[in-house]
Design brief:
This protein has a domain at 4-54: YefM-like domain (YefM-like fold, 3-Layer(aba) Sandwich). It has helices at 8-13, 15-22, 42-49, 55-59; strands at 4-7, 27-31, 34-39. It is built from four helices and three strands. A three-stranded mixed sheet has the order 1-2-3. The longest helix is centred in the first third of the chain and has 8 residues, at 15-22.
């Protein structure tokens, strides 16, 4: 992982450079020489915030209909519920 530091002025002059650098690691953006912001790729942001796909998103992925899965039938008999 590469950490890049850019001044606000450098960011404004070359946004595409900052976006490319964010693909390799965090980009620290400074204001008057002091760190003020961090630019991350969206994937890195999701990893850091712990955001995961929902079950709907996971099941709507292309190609899933082509996967064959067989679930064996359970031979266990139902038991009466006990309430204590």
């Amino acid at each position: 992982m590469t950490i890049t530091t850019l001044s606000s002025r450098e960011l404004n002059q070359d946004v595409s450079r900052a976006k490319k650098a964010a693909g390799k690691g965090p980009v620290i953006i400074t204001d008057r020489g002091k760190p003020a912001h961090v630019l991350l790729s969206f994937e890195e942001y999701q990893r850091l915030t712990g955001q995961r796909r929902t079950i709907v998103e996971a099941l709507s992925m292309p190609g899933l209909s082509e996967i064959e899965i067989e679930f064996p039938r359970s031979r266990a008999l139902p038991r009466p519920a006990t309430f204590e």
